């Protein structure tokens, strides 16, 4: 009897709310996927069918070829990957300094990193635009790589130093006693152990750079250099009526981040509790 | 012998400074220098479309902000409303989701992945997803509400002054929920189980142990995350920009969107900078007062 009550209570307090939440979160994504696979006529004449029948990939072909998503995709991959490389190298260095050394000004550096989190991105639009204009970097992907690297650095440095602190320092000491230089011991001993942290930081950086919109909209005026969010935004303006194609564009944009995200989400909670947002 | 000196050379006190130099350089040149510039521009007439008038303007921009710009007040009010509603909704439901996901049950990873998913979705995509659902003619929301008999005529959710705010709120809530779920879940996992056991021994029920153990333990995380989130939501632009463009009739023009429009459409960098400075000061005052009132860090529970 009490087991039955336990099951009933568990259903009411856990499974029912869990399913409601999941439905609320997943249904919009499912609905967009379904729209992207519907024929244009079906979207208008039978818009509420849950399953696309017949399913078609013509929206994807249209977005990829005619709208230019093949170009946007390539641009986004280049910008996001370059950002990931820059953020990883720089945050590894500063994260290592923070977790392995005590030095004068360390606390000040930490506070500086935290302060940057309160700088509104909107505050940077105008001055960064003028800076990049004076450097003739407007409409160049390089302006985006620089901006994204800078914006993502502080948070990822804190995250990275948390991950590095979890690597036992004895590993390095042992390697150095065996005759390794510090750089060699970082390269061959710390990095392999740090891999999950590197993957997590890299993935968050990639997702952030992949999704960024405001600066990309401001800095990139040439549509050969559009990133995916800017391409999608213009599509929404230009092809307002074409819901099939814009849904297909969304799905194309979603694919890399969702794959990456499902892979790293288990590190996410760990990484956060490693010290970043603990307060 | 030779090897030893190399090791020593790199172990000198300068090494940590060498390591943080790249980060410092980037932050100084592309975060702090630009911000110093904003303060400088705010005292200038700096308009891309009228370059002949550019020059020192004194307090003229700031006087205009406070005395001669109804758009400033209306967009400030919309921003405040937006941030308040958004952060409250996300915090309450994020905590609920975190509490659910903190329990152990089968296929928990599957539910976690699902619950965190919108984190990976950009504001632009979220706006496309929701404009599809909210569309007057083909949107499923009208269809569902009509099928349930709740409404009798189709509603143009994002084109109607009365419904547009609620529509953007729901769309952003959907996308922003994972932030609190993730951070609060991370925090929940650091609460030692013994605390609950001793609360149980003391005869505390579920609600009591929630208010006496869980909440005090989460306090600092909640204070810090709501503050961060307030700043982020205040500056959020991609979803509103794409879903409504600030309309209809400026009903969803937040302060950030207003500044972006000033800079992009009219090239008025001087005045835009002045509003940015005012905004920055307002956020700063809010943060200090908020931290004071919430007595951040002055709690011995952690």
TrEMBL record, chain A:
<feature type="transmembrane region" description="Helical">
    <location>
        <begin position="213"/>
        <end position="234"/>
    </location>
</feature>
<feature type="domain" description="ABC transmembrane type-1">
    <location>
        <begin position="73"/>
        <end position="264"/>
    </location>
</feature>
<feature type="transmembrane region" description="Helical">
    <location>
        <begin position="186"/>
        <end position="207"/>
    </location>
</feature>
<keyword id="KW-0813">Transport</keyword>
<dbReference type="InterPro" id="IPR050901">
    <property type="entry name" value="BP-dep_ABC_trans_perm"/>
</dbReference>
<dbReference type="InterPro" id="IPR000515">
    <property type="entry name" value="MetI-like"/>
</dbReference>
<feature type="transmembrane region" description="Helical">
    <location>
        <begin position="241"/>
        <end position="264"/>
    </location>
</feature>
<feature type="transmembrane region" description="Helical">
    <location>
        <begin position="12"/>
        <end position="31"/>
    </location>
</feature>
<protein>
    <submittedName>
        <fullName>Carbohydrate ABC transporter permease</fullName>
    </submittedName>
</protein>
<feature type="transmembrane region" description="Helical">
    <location>
        <begin position="110"/>
        <end position="132"/>
    </location>
</feature>
<keyword id="KW-1003">Cell membrane</keyword>
<feature type="transmembrane region" description="Helical">
    <location>
        <begin position="77"/>
        <end position="98"/>
    </location>
</feature>
<feature type="transmembrane region" description="Helical">
    <location>
        <begin position="144"/>
        <end position="165"/>
    </location>
</feature>
<keyword id="KW-0472">Membrane</keyword>
<keyword id="KW-1133">Transmembrane helix</keyword>
<dbReference type="Pfam" id="PF00528">
    <property type="entry name" value="BPD_transp_1"/>
</dbReference>
<comment type="similarity">
    <text>Belongs to the binding-protein-dependent transport system permease family.</text>
</comment>
<dbReference type="InterPro" id="IPR035906">
    <property type="entry name" value="MetI-like_sf"/>
</dbReference>
<keyword id="KW-0812">Transmembrane</keyword>
From TrEMBL, chain B:
<keyword id="KW-1003">Cell membrane</keyword>
<feature type="transmembrane region" description="Helical">
    <location>
        <begin position="12"/>
        <end position="36"/>
    </location>
</feature>
<keyword id="KW-1133">Transmembrane helix</keyword>
<protein>
    <submittedName>
        <fullName>Sugar ABC transporter permease</fullName>
    </submittedName>
</protein>
<keyword id="KW-0812">Transmembrane</keyword>
<feature type="transmembrane region" description="Helical">
    <location>
        <begin position="269"/>
        <end position="291"/>
    </location>
</feature>
<comment type="similarity">
    <text>Belongs to the binding-protein-dependent transport system permease family.</text>
</comment>
<dbReference type="InterPro" id="IPR035906">
    <property type="entry name" value="MetI-like_sf"/>
</dbReference>
<keyword id="KW-0472">Membrane</keyword>
<feature type="transmembrane region" description="Helical">
    <location>
        <begin position="82"/>
        <end position="102"/>
    </location>
</feature>
<feature type="domain" description="ABC transmembrane type-1">
    <location>
        <begin position="76"/>
        <end position="290"/>
    </location>
</feature>
<dbReference type="Pfam" id="PF00528">
    <property type="entry name" value="BPD_transp_1"/>
</dbReference>
<feature type="transmembrane region" description="Helical">
    <location>
        <begin position="109"/>
        <end position="130"/>
    </location>
</feature>
<dbReference type="InterPro" id="IPR000515">
    <property type="entry name" value="MetI-like"/>
</dbReference>
<keyword id="KW-0813">Transport</keyword>
